[in-house]
Amino acid sequence: MELAALLNKEHDEKRQGEAFLTANNANHNSKKFYIESYGCAMNFSDSEVVAAILQSDGFQATAVFEEADLLLINTCSIREKAEMTIRKRLTEFRKAKRSNPGMLIGILGCMAERLKSQLLEEEKLVDLVIGPDAYRTLPLLIKEATGGQKGVNVLLSREETYGDISPIRLNSNGITAFVSITRGCNNMCSFCVVPFTRGRERSRDSISILKEINQLVDDGYKEITLLGQNVDSYYWLNETTGVPVTFALLLEQAALVSPLLRVRFSTSHPKDITDDVLHTIAKYENICKCIHLPVQSGNTRVLQLMNRTYTREWYLAKIDRIRMLIPECSITSDMIAGFCTETEEEHLDTLSLMNYSNFDMSYMYYYSERPGTLAARRFTDDIPLETKKRRLQEIVDKQGELSTKSNQNDIGKIFKVLIENNSKRDQHDWTGRTSQNKITVFPKSNTAEKPGDYVWIKIYDCTRATLLGKIVDQA
Ligand code: SF4
């Protein structure tokens, strides 16, 4: 759930038909694949690995699913709604398959891992079901499926990191990119399917990570996001040098690649984020001052039922530590409303914790029981849906207040912003983000700035989600 921060609000609704026609469409005779990704940033990053595996197997990408020989959906299983979205999308692909019977349809990602071969029984038009650790076997399974034998590979691995595969940047703006550093998760939060769909945690070797970052800098990228379900527990022992690489050290090595490269990361876990990491963030201007620190609930008894392994007090102490060591840091979070047996008072604890933490933005959901999780096995999903929705609305309203106040506090200040794109609303405006990950919109000036440039923006107004400013000379 936590990686949602990097995409957008309704993350399980988000889909992107990936296409990067320009790059490698030389061979028009080769087979075509179409890939659509749902869910968290890890899935979008995995789709870039899948694209590389397929490209080296002679496939080329298409943005038009009707013309694809291979149609892939990289799925999310975090809530029931996410899976229903996929099933609905499959009905839309039925027509395309009917007009192109040779087309193969494959389900990738967490839903594939959760349901396994059951998906082939339930969805007859599906030919391939492949879990997050089995993408290297795609070419072989495609060959067998082309011969009529449907394929399933949902083996989870304790080693697989795809570290040797150079991802193909899909739907990229050429400025920002994800770099995955860990896979899987060892935390067993009772509401979460990720440990079952993505397996045990493993850290990718820092040598291949830094090689990828250097390549991105050479290709003109200006911002990377280090990705993992719990980046703070990153640990890799370089057996050649015998030097252990912790997350703080990896973060420093990434920042030292180029001072013009911004470094972001997600997601942190309150029990694992260390002072070392905070001091490293404070030490380097190009490490962004933004920490996504999911709390899920403000009440210790509920946190224990969630198996989050920290208390309300522990979390608030982390907030204090961040505010003390990096005063300008923005903090974002995740909240779940209406977890099993949550009382009204315990719900109010979540609202008061939000007040104290002053979150700049958060992702907020009501509890959705997931089959196979600890919570589903141990607890009754006893909070009525109406109560869940009302409590969620109160959390959303509270966050609205905090986000607006946080943005209003920025009026009159000057921030360094990385230009990413034209504003969707007005082509005469640029959009970009501050180091605090705040979306900023400002008019284009006549100094020919372009995406990938850093500019100084003076904020003169805001909405709940956006800062409005104009380009000024350096602060
Ligand atoms: S088990 Fe917990 S820490 Fe791991 S991905 Fe799920 S919510 Fe995040």
Q: Layout of SSEs?
A:
Layout: E1 16-18, E2 32-37, H1 41-55, E3 60-61, E4 70-75, H2 80-99, E5 104-109, H3 110-115, H4 118-122, E6 128-130, H5 138-146, E7 151-153, E8 176-180, E9 182-183, H6 194-198, E10 202-203, H7 206-218, E11 223-227, E12 235-238, E13 243-246, H8 247-255, E14 262-266, H9 275-283, E15 290-292, H10 300-305, H11 312-325, E16 330-337, H12 344-357, E17 361-366, H13 374-378, H14 385-408, E18 414-422, E19 429-433, E20 439-443, E21 454-462, E22 467-472
Parallel strand pairs: 2-3, 2-4, 4-5, 5-6, 6-7, 8-11, 11-14, 15-16, 16-17, 20-22
Antiparallel strand pairs: 1-2, 9-10, 12-13, 18-19, 18-21, 19-20, 21-22
Helix pairs in contact: 8-9, 12-14
Bound molecules: iron/sulfur cluster.
Please provide a written account of the structure.
The chain has helices spanning 41-55, 80-99, 110-115, 118-122, 138-146, 194-198, 206-218, 247-255, 275-283, 300-305, 312-325, 344-357, 374-378, 385-408, and strands at residues 16-18, 32-37, 60-61, 70-75, 104-109, 128-130, 151-153, 176-180, 182-183, 202-203, 223-227, 235-238, 243-246, 262-266, 290-292, 330-337, 361-366, 414-422, 429-433, 439-443, 454-462, 467-472. The strands form six sheets. Strands 1, 2, 3, 4, 5, 6 and 7 form a seven-stranded mixed β-sheet that branches. A five-stranded mixed barrel has the order 18-19-20-22-21. Helix content is 32%, strand content 23%. With 475 residues, the chain is α/β, with parallel strands linked by helices. The chain contains 14 helices and 22 strands. It folds into three domains: 3-153, Rossmann fold; 176-405, Alpha-Beta Horseshoe (pyruvate-formate lyase- activating enzyme), CATH 3.80.30.20; 414-472, Nucleic acid-binding proteins (OB fold (Dihydrolipoamide Acetyltransferase, E2P)). Strand 2 (32-37), helix 1 (41-55) and strand 3 form a beta-alpha-beta unit. The structure holds iron/sulfur cluster. Residues 1-2, 185, 187, 189, 192, 194-195, 229-230, 269 line the site of iron/sulfur cluster (SF4).
